[in-house]
Design brief:
Layout: H1 9-13, H2 20-31, E1 37-44, E2 54-55, H3 59-66, E3 72-75, E4 81-82, E5 89-94, H4 102-126, E6 130-133, H5 144-154, E7 158-159, H6 165-168, H7 178-184, H8 187-197, E8 204-207, H9 214-224, E9 228-233, H10 237-240, H11 243-256, E10 263-267, E11 283-286, H12 288-291, E12 298-305, E13 308-309, E14 321-325, E15 331-334, E16 349-351, E17 354-358, E18 361-362, H13 369-380
Helix pairs in contact: 3-4, 4-5, 5-13, 7-8, 8-9, 9-11
Length: about 400
């Protein structure tokens, strides 16, 4: 009996979540005994909103999908910053062995990379301010762990989804819902019950726009919650007005009463363009802008058959290598030359497509989520929002 409209792990692994044309093509090729060794590359011809770079994620799932299939797989390390037209994955082997898995491969990296890229752009825009990802309520619950993982890899500080805790190895975080305040029936009583009922290690952040004006409730919270850490403004769009002015007003009224240490946390309809304007905000709760971010439009294309370069129109044929400078992240794509020195800064170049599967066996270490995130943060120090 099917309860939820999702594919099982075994369905994905066995290619039963594919597009029908791959199944039909494989059926004919197998029936006719056509077995050809191919090289396929996965690239993105462009990025959402003409972003100059993206963050690759979803590679762990691709690795587990292709494990046990007698092919070779090369990939950029998960969390790598990449650019359009740069191969991020390469598969080598007999085509019918993985034909039905193209849909899943692209699905794993297109959506995850889109979320990681958007999260990384928020990270750059917010600099050192706190960012919480909590947009899973807008998406299908079966993929909520993937969303939180991809956002965390991209550089957010925390996530709200309970289901992602084990996957990421970090506890979920969040404040309180408006429903809690409404059910208790009184803001002050609700904040005090929350303070009393949750573990002392959890920061006391009061939601301050349920019934009264944000300024009034912020003052009430500061005066009545003993160990208050901050206040959260989640003003609905119909009453928002100029959010920056509202924040400035709340900050002034808290400071003038001696509550300079009470931090302001803002959520509700925030996008990366809003971040620089809200300079008095300590942290942001980002929902739909991250969870429903535009996917990276990766495509998977044959570039070589039986050792001969070939591709469909609009694509570059031939097996390619990707070299990246370890100093400035400059990229050079080559089909027959080993690049050792960067043409921009003369730094050392490394072959960036690393083997992850050989003859069906995983040959690369699968990094922990925290390692991937740290790798992303290190790279983000070397890029800007408008270009490398």
């Amino acid at each position: 009996m099917v309860i939820f409209h999702t594919a099982k792990d075994e369905d994905i692994k066995e290619g039963r979540s594919t597009d029908i044309y791959f199944s039909r093509a494989k059926k004919v090729l197998v029936k006719e005994g056509i077995k050809k060794r191919v090289i396929v590359e996965i690239t993105a011809g462009s990025l959402p909103n003409n972003y100059p770079w993206g963050v690759l994620s979803g590679i762990e799932e691709v690795t587990k999908l292709l494990e046990g299939i007698n092919i070779d797989v090369y990939s950029l390390p998960e969390g790598s910053i990449f650019q359009p037209y740069q191969p991020v994955l390469r598969l080598e082997g007999e085509y019918t062995l993985f034909a039905e898995l193209e849909t899943a491969i692209l699905g794993f990296i297109c959506q995850s990379s889109g979320i990681s890229t958007k999260a990384a752009r928020f990270r750059k825009a917010a600099k050192k301010k706190y960012i919480l990802s909590f947009g899973i309520r807008r998406m299908h619950p079966s993929i909520s762990p993937m969303i939180d993982r991809a956002a965390y890899i991209g550089g957010v500080d925390g996530f709200s989804g309970v289901a992602a805790q084990k996957l990421i190895g970090k506890k979920a975080t969040g404040t309180m819902p408006h429903a809690f305040v409404l059910i208790v029936g009184d803001q002050i009583k609700a904040w005090k019950l929350y303070d009393k009922g949750i573990h002392k290690s959890i920061p006391r952040i009061a939601l301050v726009d349920t019934l009264y004006d944000e300024k009034a409730e912020s003052i009430m919270a500061a005066e009545n919650v003993k160990d208050i850490f901050g206040v959260r403004l989640d003003t609905p769009e119909s009453r928002r007005g100029n959010m920056n002015r509202i924040v400035e007003e709340v900050r002034w009224e808290l400071d003038i009463r001696g509550y300079e240490n009470v931090k302001i946390f803002v959520s509700g309809g925030i996008d990366e363009d809003n971040i620089p304007k809200l300079n008095k905000v300590w942290g942001f709760g980002i929902g739909t802008s991250i969870s429903n971010s535009k996917i990276i439009d990766f495509a998977m294309d044959i570039v070589e058959i039986e050792g001969k370069p070939i591709s469909k129109r609009g694509k570059l044929s031939g097996k390619k290598e990707v070299f990246r400078c370890t100093s400035c992240l400059n990229l050079i794509i080559s089909y027959n030359n080993e690049i050792t020195r960067c043409t921009s800064c003369k730094g050392r170049m490394e072959n960036f497509l690393k083997p992850i599967i050989k003859d069906g066996k995983i040959v690369a270490n699968i990094p922990k989520v925290e390692e991937i995130r740290n790798y992303v943060l290190k790279q983000l120090q070397q890029v800007n929002l408008d270009g490398l």
